[in-house]
Amino acid sequence: MSLDHSFVGRSYPPTAPYQVGREKIREFATAIGATDPAHHDPEAARALGHPDVVAPPTFPMVLTMAANRQMIEDPALGIDYSRVVHGDQRFAYTRPVVAGDELVCVNTVEDITSRGGHDFVTTRTEVSTVTGEPVVTAWMKLVVRGEN
Amino acid sequence: MELPTQTFRVTRADLIRYAGASGDFNPIHWSDRFATTVGLPGVIAHGMLTMALVGRAVTTWAGAADAVVDYGVRFTRPVVVPDDDSGTEIVVNAVARETAEAGLTRLDITATCNGEKVLAQARATVRTPLPTGVAGREG
């Protein structure tokens, strides 16, 4: 089954706000072995000019992965998640995510191509605060393997 | 400029911890039974865990937890993590290059596991400390 290429350029409604907790950042940092005090100690983060602990660079995936279900589970787009492989991932940061952020995600299907029996879907997720301040943009390329 | 090599050990316990912290509970990252039924040699690390560990290397090289302005990778090969105490090891190298923009450095990164590249097109752009007297990084 091929994907509906007319979805290119389509955006989805903003997701419900995600409240970034200090303990969640500490938990994530601990899980990846990131011991920099800026991830754990609010004072260390404030010394760098941030209001609270700073999330590691790939932390936004915690919310963008959940937000991307809007697209991945959209039956009209037609992604068979059982055949999906994560191809590429990129983040462009306006600033780091920090504890206390309330973040919303806007998902857009940026590109769909088909090659060699596989589909390639590039999604873009704009992450901003509930007041509209941009924080980070995440791009993900999914490879949907062909059947056989 | 070649940056000093950094290595990261990954065990099954690390995968479980990352699954919990990230919310990615795909069974290919914890069940050999499931992983082998979908054609993998065994449990593999989350691509995003590899990217996170390489991200640690990047912030360590940059010298600040908040220095990364852009970071992207392509996942080319799974990191197979054996069910033993020593797990496996990811070796991360990078070359730092100047960019057209003052205060920014680009890192071209390689990450290998058992001598094979697990990422391609891995790049990060980081803020580098500006000389005293130069305007701050904001704006």
UniProtKB/TrEMBL annotation, chain A:
Name all FAS1-like dehydratase domain ranges: 6-137
Instruction: Check the record and name the InterPro entries matching this protein.
Output: FAS1-like_DH_region, HadA-like, HotDog_dom_sf, UPF0336/Enoyl-CoA_hydratase
Its GO biological process terms?
A: fatty acid biosynthetic process
One example GO MF annotation: (3R)-hydroxyacyl-[acyl-carrier-protein] dehydratase activity
UniProt-listed SUPFAM superfamilies: Thioesterase/thiol ester dehydrase-isomerase (SSF54637)
Q: Which domain of life does the UniProt lineage start with?
A: Bacteria
CDD domains xref list: R_hydratase_like
Family label: Belongs to the UPF0336 family.
Record's protein name: UPF0336 protein C1I93_17100
Q: What is the species listed in this Swiss-Prot or TrEMBL entry? A: Micromonospora endophytica
Q: What is the lineage of its organism?
A: Bacteria, Bacillati, Actinomycetota, Actinomycetes, Micromonosporales
From TrEMBL, chain B:
Lineage, top-rank taxon, reads Bacteria
**Which CDD domains does this UniProt record tie to the protein?**
SAV4209_like (cd03453)
Residue ranges crossing the lipid bilayer per the database entry = none
Q: Could you state one GO cellular component term attached to this entry?
A: fatty acid synthase complex
One BP term from GO: fatty acid biosynthetic process
InterPro entries xref list: Fatty_acid_synthase (IPR003965), HotDog_dom_sf (IPR029069), MaoC-like_dom (IPR002539)
GO MF term (any one): fatty acid synthase activity
User: Which Pfam families would you find in this protein's record?
Assistant: MaoC_dehydratas
Instruction: Identify its protein family.
Output: Belongs to the enoyl-CoA hydratase/isomerase family.
Xref: PANTHER family: (3R)-HYDROXYACYL-ACP DEHYDRATASE SUBUNIT HADB, 3-HYDROXYACYL-THIOESTER DEHYDRATASE HTDX-RELATED
Protein name (record):
Dehydratase
Naturally occurring in which organism (per UniProt): Micromonospora endophytica
